[in-house]
From TrEMBL, chain A:
Keywords: Membrane, Transmembrane, Transmembrane helix. The keyword Membrane applies. PANTHER family: CYCLIC DI-GMP PHOSPHODIESTERASE PA4108-RELATED (PTHR43155). Signal peptide: none annotated. Pfam families: HD_5. It comes from Brevibacillus antibioticus. SUPFAM superfamilies: HD-domain/PDEase-like. This is HD domain-containing protein. Residues 234-429 form the HD-GYP domain. Residues 256-378 form the HD domain. The chain crosses the membrane at residues 12-29, 41-59, 71-100, 144-162, 174-192, 198-217.
Automatic annotation (TrEMBL), chain B:
Keywords: Membrane, Transmembrane, Transmembrane helix. It holds the Pfam family DUF5317. InterPro entries: DUF5317. It comes from Brevibacillus antibioticus. The chain crosses the membrane at residues 44-66, 73-89, 140-160. This is DUF5317 domain-containing protein.
């Protein structure tokens, strides 16, 4: 498996950093002879102007900015042939190379994938030239093939430079804003044919269509952006609120400052480590923040009592899981957190409280938080005692694995802690209030 | 040389509400003087004219390179580079398409005789003909331009806008931001 992955990435490297630029060079050299005849100069001139215009007249979409260059290139291929497309691509690359100091390897790979797309589309165009179908139909096919070949090659480059999976990258691109490209390409296909028949006047309605489209997109994506911002704001507020709530829970108990935050942190680490989805990870973090909310309902004298608790007092403390459950249930929010709050003191062997659940009966979230909770309780300093050394606490967890804790989760947890550098571990254990960095992490 | 383009740029900048505030500073102006001197030499000593002109283009490119922090200069540099390619590959003279040049109200005999130190006639053996002076531009001043000249004109236009304190950033245009840079 490992070898296969390595082989794949070497292949990508060869294609993106060698074959793309080499192909660019060969295709460029091949086009050079097509640029030389006298009757082609006017076309090159016109496409230079079009390329300059399209390079600096973008269409804004949600997260990216699309330029019309691909549409210009495509019209060149349709009306004249690959040499015009390659010319437009070369001019664009030159402009960007002079204007922006780009990474030369990336720039070469990019021009390579672009002219390769042009070359493939031209090849396809020539091969379907004899098919007895309307040019309108073949143009549509070409538009789709341009778009498809482009995202496949582009996706290869992206997957190499950003170390992602090629297939999923292409899939994402196909579903994303590249669809706008397809729309432009289809429009340009129609426009090019109109241009052939009606000449320059075609540009008037075409320009009107493009400008209107760009305006509509602008409005649409602007409101989308605003909405996204609002959602982010609400999320931020939510997290600030929850963190403040966790802090106030901890403040009730003077022994446990910052406890909920740390439990939430460890819970999130475990959830990430076992490969849960981002939303689940997020849920567990919030569950950690709120797991002790029931302590609000425990009398101060018991919670802050110095010395040993009587069995009755201990029973009352145990009630905090059920009280918390009731609070959240009545609030009607965070229903997904109910199991975490009720069952985070359950044990795998069924000797925990409040319900005496065993094994897999205990919800996953609760099993995760049980380990985080126990670990933090052991290592955190308390006013009346120093916290246990981390190694000893891990030893305790190892000992409880299979009786108190889920053995697989415990194993994950021990690995997570052992992986951490000493300073980082100490800084997490020492979290008192609400550090900004943590908060920001939580928001993501 | 580009008087009409520059004049038009000034008018546009004025209409945009621009005023000259301060003249932009250029680095290594000496390179510019060297290249002018080389051009003069080429006129004085025609046998080696092509070499002098070719070298003078290198100096201008170097001058632009030292001043490349503003976008207008970089666009200018690209145009100059494309023209340089045509000059370097054609013995130090810019080939001009006779068919287009005949539309101009100038006497073309020095070009045809080969005594013009700046231009030569475009023939079958001309290298990179698509980068030479082949496009007839009817107004404002009629002339035959090359594709590189498009970029030189664009660069001149942008430079004048910056000079008049109303700079336009192409890169910001590309990013879909407000076209004018805040200075």
């Amino acid at each position: 498996m490992q070898r296969k992955v390595e082989f794949g990435s070497t292949m990508k490297k060869i294609v993106v950093t060698w074959i793309f630029p080499l192909a660019a060079l060969v295709i460029f050299y091949d086009s050079l002879s097509d640029w030389e005849p006298r009757e082609h100069w006017g076309v090159l001139f016109a496409y230079t102007l079009l390329t300059i215009f399209s390079t600096f007249a973008p269409i804004r979409t949600l997260n990216t900015i699309l330029t019309l260059n691909n549409a210009v290139i495509f019209s060149g291929i349709l009306l004249f042939g690959a040499w015009v497309g390659v010319w437009s691509a070369v001019v664009e690359t030159l402009i960007l190379a002079f204007l922006i100091r780009a990474n030369p390897i990336k720039a070469l790979a990019n021009i390579g994938q672009l002219v390769l797309t042009i070359w493939f589309v031209d090849l396809f165009k020539n091969s379907i030239g004899n098919v007895p179908a309307s040019t309108m139909i073949t143009d549509l096919l070409l538009a789709v093939s341009y778009w498809f070949i482009n995202i496949i090659l582009c996706g290869l480059g992206i997957s190499y430079f950003f170390k992602t999976n090629w297939f999923t990258t292409v899939q994402k691109m196909a579903k994303g804003t590249t669809l706008t490209y397809l729309l432009l390409m289809v429009m340009v296909g129609i426009g090019s044919r109109l241009f052939e028949t009606y000449g320059l006047y075609t540009l008037v309605p075409m320009m009107a269509a493009f400008i209107t489209m760009s305006f509509v997109f602008h409005q649409y994506y602007d409101s989308m952006n605003k909405l996204q911002q609002k959602v982010e704001e609400v999320k931020t507020f939510n997290h600030k609120f929850l963190t403040a709530m966790a802090a106030s829970i901890d403040a009730r108990d003077r022994y446990t400052s910052g406890h909920s935050q740390r439990v939430a942190h460890w819970g999130r680490e475990i959830a990430k480590d076992i490969g849960l989805s981002a939303t689940k990870v997020e849920e567990i973090y919030v569950g950690g923040l709120l797991h002790d909310i029931g302590k609000i309902g425990i009398e101060d004298e018991i919670l802050n009592k110095k010395g040993k608790l009587t069995p009755e007092e201990y029973d009352k403390i145990k009630q905090h899981t059920v009280i918390g459950y009731e609070i959240i249930l009545q609030a009607g929010m965070f229903n997904e957190l109910l199991p975490a709050i009720r069952s985070h003191h359950e044990r795998i062997d069924g000797r925990g409280y409040p319900d005496g659940l065993a094994g897999d009966e205990i919800p996953l979230m609760a099993r995760i938080l049980a380990i985080s909770d126990a670990f933090d309780a052991m290592v955190a300093d308390r006013p009346y005692r120093k916290g246990l050394p981390v190694e000893e606490a891990l030893q305790e967890i190892r000992r409880g694995s299979g009786t108190q804790f889920d053995p697989i989760l415990a194993e994950h947890f021990i690995r997570i802690v052992q992986r951490l550098p000493y300073e980082e571990l100490q800084s997490i254990i020492g979290i008192e209030s609400i550090p900004q960095k943590q908060l920001q992490e939580a928001i993501r | 040389m580009l008087l009409d383009v520059i004049g038009l740029s000034f008018v546009i900048a004025l209409l945009r509400g621009g005023r000259i505030k301060e003249f932009p500073k250029f680095h290594k102006l000496s390179l510019l003087f060297i290249s002018i001197a080389l051009q003069a030499l080429s006129a004085l000593y025609p046998p080696a004219g092509g070499i002098f002109v070719s070298i003078s283009y290198v100096f201008i490119l170097a001058f632009l390179l030292f001043n490349r922090q503003s976008e207008d200069i970089r666009i200018f540099m690209m145009g100059w580079f494309l023209n340089s390619l045509a000059i370097w590959t054609n013995n130090g003279r810019m080939p001009i398409d006779l068919e287009q040049a005949k539309k101009l109200p100038y006497d073309l005999t020095p070009v045809i005789n080969g005594t013009n130190f700046k231009h030569s006639i475009l023939t079958e053996s001309t290298n990179l003909p698509f980068l030479t002076d082949v496009i007839y531009m009817p107004s404002i001043i009629p002339r035959v331009i090359s594709i590189g000249d498009i970029f030189i004109m664009l660069g001149a236009f942008l430079l004048v806008q910056r000079l008049m304190n109303k700079p336009i950033s192409l890169l910001q245009l590309r990013e879909g931001k407000n076209y004018a840079t805040k200075s």
